[in-house]
Each structure stands twice: as structure tokens, then as C-alpha cells.
Design brief:
The protein has 185 residues and is α+β, with helices and mostly antiparallel strands. 26% of the residues lie in helices and 23% in strands. Strands 1, 2, 3, 4, 5 and 8 form a 6-stranded antiparallel beta sheet that branches. A two-stranded antiparallel sheet has the order 6-7. A hairpin with a 4-residue loop joins strand 6 and strand 7. The longest helix has 14 residues.
Length: 185
Amino acid sequence: MRAVPPPLTLNKALMSMHCISTPLVRESVTAYIALGGNLGDAARTVQAAFLALAGLPGTQLRAQSSLYRTAPYESSGPDYINAVAALDTTLTAPDLLAALQALELQAGRERPYLNAPRTLDLDVLHYGSARISSPRLTVPHPRWTERAFVLVPLAEIAPELVSAAQLQAVADQGIARWSAEPSAV
């Protein structure tokens, strides 16, 4: 019997380590987050990450997609489990990124090389209508329209953000709704 990993939570030590500020009053912004992983029990980790996202300061989980299984894309290792979440948050974009990276770290994320297999990957796809280009964060995510593992779950929860042409452009990338039963991608 496998040990159940502890739930992901953003504790005060991680918040201070990543310099997350929590302003008293700030207008809520809708952010879309890509979730994925391909090491360990990736489905359980992604499901735990949904709960952890809902627990971020000043944040509500507005929607979550189904889980999807995909072959590695520009990566290696076992198949990935992917999903997308919609959040309403008062965190700034840099604070949201810091919180996501803290959750990745808590889930055992390591970055030994570019596109290495991972326990948990959390990416900011959109942060309201903001356009951000900094050394740490680019929003919208620079490759969000190139990846079926982002577009398909995003279209499930926010169809107004994904066009039929965008979905057609990634139709050759294998993706299947995840179930506990093995199936071909």
C-alpha cells in the first residue's frame, strides 16, 4: 500500500521565503493556471494542487478542468497528467508566481535541466488581461497556444479563450481525458 503524500499547503515559512505580500485590499483578478506532472502519483498530486490553489491567500478556485493524460511534449519520461484551473485572486502576478513555485517545491519539484520530468508544474497562463514581460514572468504564457495539454483543458473551463483554429493546430498532439484505467494516448 502506497503512503498518501501530505496535502499541499502554502505555509507561512514558504510564503516568507518567496516574499509573498498580502495587501489588505486589492481587486480580484481572474488567473488561469496550468497544472501538470509526470513523476510519482501525478494524478493525486494534481488533484492536491487544486486544493492547494484554493487555499492561497486572497484566492478562490473558480473552476477546474478534468484531468488529461498526454505524452511528454518537448520533454521526456512517463506520460503527464495535465489540467487547468481558473482562480479569482487578489495576489499580484509576481506573488501568485511565487506561491505557485512554493507549491511546486513542497511537492518535490526539482529543476535539474530544462523540461526535466517533474512532480508538479504550475504555470500562469493568463492573469486577467495583463501583458507582463519580465525576467521572472511572461503573461500570457509564451507557448500556451502551442500545447494541446493547455488548450484542451482551458477550452473545457473557459471556451471563450480558445478558438477552434487553435484547437485544430494542436490536434496532432495526443491527449486523452484521464481515467484510472490505462488507455492509448
